Amino acid sequence: MDQPRKLHIKSFGCQMNVYDAQRMVDALAPQGFVETANADDADLVILNTCHIREKAAEKVYSELGKLKLLKQDAAQQGRRFEIAVAGCVAQAEGEEIIRRQPAVDVVVGPQSYHHLPDLLAQARREGRALETEFPVEDKFGLLPPPQPEAIRARGVSAFVTVQEGCDKFCSFCVVPYTRGAEMSRPVAQIIADTERLAAHGVREITLIGQNVNAYHGEGPDGRPWTLGRLLHRLAEIPGVARLRYSTSHPLDVDDELIAAHRELAALMPFVHLPVQSGSDTILAAMNRRHTADDYRRLIDRFRAASPEIAFSSDFIVGFPGESERDFVATLALVEQIGYAGAYSFKYSPRPGTPAAEMQEMVAPAVMDERLERLQSLIDSQQAAFNTAAIGTTVDVLFERAARHPGQIVGRTAYLQPAHVMASDDIIGQVLPVTIHSLERYSLLGELASRPAEPKPVTIGA
Ligand code: 5AD
Ligand code: SF4
């Protein structure tokens, strides 16, 4: 094999992209590629792009402009410097990327990452840029499993993809077009990946998918398994201390998933359940296929199963036709639920989606103002949630040394960063921590001698 070549991946967007970046590293490792933190000294740079919101494509072209200069520098030094574009912009723009930026060597969509080594080799051989034809195929069986070196580098928490794509067709969203139809991975593959990760020190597994609770992968019994059933099975794997899943659609939550929160100690009581809007008119226009009350009842069912559960959500403000009254209904819903945190976005029309054809655009200044009102409400709820931790003893999974010498950082069940002074052999352990203060979004505390108490969540209705 040639001497190691350096690979730099710059990821934008969702956790699926973070995960995919890891899979690309795994796919390229057998070709002698090792990861580097800098684009400057890389031999191959992959832009792992996101198309979900505004200006995604423009951002990619401006990044590519910078990479082109690095490629020119490398050429002057007689060094090969390759550029690949992956992710959803690659999927959406295809050949257009090569046309607009000829410095690009390869364009590859999310369904085809297992072709990356071959594509790069072919582009090199033929001396021309290549684009995959983006076939929708079984990508799941084709990538190599996570490699031990790479697992260690990732630390104590890892993503495992369980499904990809989405059949929900929310009217604003490009995912069903860029990521394609919903596909679930077979249970056996997920168990194998999880066992491998756990054997190499991973303690927390987050099952990910664009619509993760639509999961219906084939079980060892030849029948489709639900996400709830899968979680029960994964909780049996030695070494797995914590399980999470993201992102869920309210319509696909079933009793088994809710019950899993009562039954599985390893399943963390923090659920990302996007609602997008609190107005039934807007929810209908978004093709969400649930009402605000359906969502409220769902939250109640989760809370009845496990009072510790806290929620996060996504919101879109300024969807076409959103009136002040619709927006106030969103604020009211947020008030009632009481979130531990949430993401809110200004609506941006995505070409090819039904909402992009809608006429009644909300004025940009109105969108800005609504975003600010919503964010300040969510921020105050998040601050209240974090403040409520002060004086309590909570379990923390320790991840790594923090910036201050002697300090170790980990995460609570609710993904709050928590810092203690301790030796680094606590990394990888879940230990009780008594929280004494808050520094921005981080909890500060000390290792406790008594076990953590379950904490009923107090904010919200
Ligand atoms: N405009 C604004 N936000 C969007 N999202 C998805 N599509 C759009 C869009 N066109 C948001 C949704 C989704 C999150 C991942 O991104 O809130 O849940
Ligand atoms: Fe997009 Fe809706 Fe599918 Fe989420 S559920 S990925 S918002 S279409």
UniProtKB/TrEMBL annotation:
An MF annotation (GO) of this entry: tRNA-2-methylthio-N(6)-dimethylallyladenosine(37) synthase activity
Any single Gene Ontology cellular-component annotation: cytosol
Principal location: cytoplasm
Superkingdom of origin organism: Bacteria
Annotated catalysed reactions: N(6)-dimethylallyladenosine(37) in tRNA + (sulfur carrier)-SH + AH2 + 2 S-adenosyl-L-methionine = 2-methylsulfanyl-N(6)-dimethylallyladenosine(37) in tRNA + (sulfur carrier)-H + 5'-deoxyadenosine + L-methionine + A + S-adenosyl-L-homocysteine + 2 H(+)
Assigned EC number: 2.8.4.3
Cellular localisation: Cytoplasm
Chain positions recorded as [4Fe-4S] cluster 1 binding sites: 14, 50, 88
Residue intervals of the MTTase N-terminal domain: 5-125
Electron transport in keyword set: no
The keyword Signal belongs to this UniProt entry's keyword annotation: no
Annotated [4Fe-4S] cluster 2 binding sites: 166, 170, 173
Enzyme class label: transferase
Pfam families listed in its UniProt record: Radical_SAM, TRAM, UPF0004
Chain ranges of the Radical SAM core domain: 152-384
Cofactor entry: [4Fe-4S] cluster
NCBIfam families: miaB-methiolase, MiaB/RimO family radical SAM methylthiotransferase
Described purpose of this protein according to its UniProt entry: Catalyzes the methylthiolation of N6-(dimethylallyl)adenosine (i(6)A), leading to the formation of 2-methylthio-N6-(dimethylallyl)adenosine (ms(2)i(6)A) at position 37 in tRNAs that read codons beginning with uridine.
Quaternary context: Monomer.
Family: Belongs to the methylthiotransferase family. MiaB subfamily.
Name of the protein: tRNA-2-methylthio-N(6)-dimethylallyladenosine synthase
Record organism: Rhodopseudomonas faecalis
